[in-house]
TrEMBL record:
It comes from [Actinomadura] parvosata subsp. kistnae. Keywords: Iron, Metal-binding, Oxidoreductase. One of its GO terms (molecular function) is oxidoreductase activity. Belongs to the clavaminate synthase family. The keyword tRNA processing does not apply. InterPro entries: Clavaminate_syn-like, TauD-like_sf, TauD/TfdA-like. Pfam families: TauD. This is Oxygenase. Fe cation binds at residues 139, 141. The keyword Iron applies. Residues 96-300 form the TauD/TfdA-like domain.
Length: 321
């Protein structure tokens, strides 16, 4: 963004804010795409191009971040309670709505539409975005679910230690033919990750419950041969018992993904849009201090066709229940 474009984005956000006596992101999501027409043309054109070409990763730099931004909350629940970073939430909804429809999960961050990615005390080693000391291994967001996002978007508000977001593009991988064949078969079992807590989501097509764990089965690589899609999360997928071929494919693929990983260090004002069908992403470990200056991102899931969610919910509601 040029300074002028940044000022324009801030202006649109302020206009929206002025219209809302009490901020309701779920209701605003219904209007965000219309309000986004006020954003700079160059930005809208860029994002529309990303959508049309299915570019695997896009970064918009220099979006407005309030100079009087609140201290980083020590956990998403505190961010929710205090409404910290509300204008930035709005900016992400505005900009993201050019790429897709915002949605959330009833059992993730209490059903919030926009998530806070901040380290939380006691969660340092967890396998969720609240971790810090443990690295977040390369993953597809919400790998188990057929309505997982087309784009996971992350808007950086603070990143003082220059912690990297890691990612591997499927285009960077050269699978041996026999591995690609196995990966294309519907033989991998995917599970909800640890960020899905509390209330159980509605059953989804093709779901199986083994013991008390829900799972879906599918391929890792699928879609157009010349522009393939993937889903992968070593921590939340398994081979069925005695299926050595699948277990080996998971391990080998994980190693290939790690070997081809790149990193991007998000700066305040950067928003990254990660194509969740073309890239797996993760995060480097870091040291959380809980001093108000920790790393802080806003996260928003975007789907191209929100009607899939409405149909699944049996209600015109963009929080998956
Ligand atoms: O913190 C990051 O850079 C990425 C975290 C992540 O994987 C997520 O929030 O989905
Ligand atoms: Fe993620």
């Amino acid at each position: 963004m040029t300074a002028q474009e940044r000022a324009r984005v801030a202006e649109v956000a302020e206009e929206v804010q002025a219209d809302w006596a009490s901020w309701d992101p779920l209701r605003f999501a219904e209007e965000a795409a219309a309000a986004a027409h006020g954003l700079p043309l160059r930005l809208r054109r860029f994002l529309s191009g990303v959508r049309a070409s299915e570019a695997d990763l896009a970064v918009v730099s220099g979006l407005p971040v309030d100079p009087a931004l609140a201290p980083t909350p020590a956990g998403w629940d505190l961010a929710a309670k205090t409404g910290a970073g509300r204008r930035e939430e709005l900016v992400l909804l505005l900009v993201g709505s050019v790429l897709g429809e915002p949605f959330g999960w009833v059992n993730q961050q209490d059903g919030r539409l926009v998530h806070d990615v901040v380290p939380a005390p006691g969660m340092e080693e967890s396998l969720t975005s609240a971790s810090s000391a443990a690295q977040l291994t390369l993953h597809t967001e919400d790998v188990f679910h057929p309505f997982r996002c087309d784009y996971v978007s992350l808007f950086c508000l603070r990143n003082p230690d220059e912690v990297g977001t890691t990612f591997t593009r499927i285009d960077a991988l050269d699978f041996p033919e026999d591995l690609r064949e196995v990966l294309s078969e519907s033989r991998f079992r995917f599970y909800p990750d640890d960020s899905h807590t509390g209330e159980i989501l509605n059953a989804i097509d093709g779901e199986q419950v083994l013991g008390n764990r829900r799972s879906t089965v599918g391929p890792v690589v699928f879609g157009p041969a010349e522009h393939p899609y993937l889903r992968f999360d070593r921590d939340f997928m398994t081979a069925d018992r005695d299926d050595e071929k699948t277990a080996t494919a998971i391990q080998v693929t994980h190693d290939l993904l790690c070997g081809a990983a790149e990193r991007i260090v998000l700066q305040p004002g950067d928003a990254v849009f990660i194509d969740n069908y073309r890239i797996v992403h993760g995060r480097e470990p870091f040291h959380a201090r809980y001093d108000g200056n920790d790393r802080w991102l806003k996260r928003l899931n975007l789907i191209r066709d929100v009607r899939r969610i409405y149909a699944g919910n049996g209600a015109r509601r963009r929080i998956i229940t």
